[in-house]
Amino acid sequence: MKPFFEVFSSAFLLTIARYFIIAGIFFLVFYLLFPKSLLRNKIQSRLAGKADFLREMLHSSISSIMLAIMAVFALSDGLRPYTLIYTDLHEYSLLWVPLSLLLTLIVHDAYFYWMHRILHHKKLFKITHLVHHQSTNPSPWTSYSFHFLEAIAEGGVMVLLVLVMPLHPLTLGLFALSSFVINVYGHLGYEIMPKRFRNSFLFEIINTSTFHNFHHLKFKGNYGLYLRVWDRLMKTEHPDYVKEYDRIQNQRFGGV
Ligand SMILES: [Zn+2]
Ligand SMILES: [Zn+2]
């Protein structure tokens, strides 16, 4: 068993590097290199400022510590007897890797929706989730900008996942990576979905950057992470979401 600090420091470096590299690439492309040519994709017309970015980076760095602690706990020897982690890739069919990855995202979506609803409770909002909502016009840097208690709750999904389904460390790594990329897309501030997405059945179930941006702008409604499913089931989707999505896509592609 490796000493805690050694494992924790690797997990922390991985988490914070993922944040700065992936959010940084999106920020570079959308905010520094091509903001003028991507203007039609912009969801809110005003721009977030430097002070917002710095505040978000600071909170995200603290969140990275909390997320790393939760990941180390999820993979710790102490929790191991209760988890379903497997290390031999051939213990299950190789097909289980993509299938379990899909399932981790579905479980995470449900976990996030209910955690998010709880964080919006008036007794909890001001002392926790308000930090994330200080960003009314989110950017890629908002992705991990949480109060440290929210970051612990966010990281709790790793613990839940290893307890409820057999997962290979490779799948967990892919989950952490894909989850973060989708998170950055949700906070991008720009809509990049192709035009044909609107008429596909996927539009009915998957949420978009506009969807989460609307949550930051309005504070209420659109609590889901990857899917519209829980919001539609619980009737918490903002009634103007589709109208707003159409407005932005019309701004990009012209009226239909
Ligand atoms: Zn919220
Ligand atoms: Zn957000």
Name the descriptors.
256 residues; mainly alpha; 11 helices; binds zinc ion
SSE order and pairing:
Elements: H1 4-33, H2 50-74, H3 96-119, H4 122-125, H5 130-133, H6 148-164, H7 169-186, H8 202-205, H9 209-218, H10 229-233, H11 241-253
Helix pairs in contact: 1-2, 1-7, 2-6, 3-6, 3-7
The protein binds zinc ion (ZN) (2 copies).
Explain this structure to me?
The protein is mainly α and 256 residues long. It has one domain (4-191). The protein has helices at 4-33, 50-74, 96-119, 122-125, 130-133, 148-164, 169-186, 202-205, 209-218, 229-233, 241-253. Helix 1 (4-33) packs antiparallel against helix 2 (50-74), helix 1 (4-33) packs parallel to helix 7 and helix 3 (96-119) packs antiparallel against helix 6 (148-164). The longest helix is centred in the N-terminal third of the chain and has 30 residues, at 4-33. The mean pLDDT is 95. The structure holds zinc ion (ZN) (2 copies). One zinc ion is lined by residues 132, 138, 142, 187, 212, 216.
Heterogens = zinc ion
Low-confidence stretches: none
Taking Cα atoms only, what radius of gyration do you get, to the nearest Å?
19 Å
Work out the helicity level: 55-70%
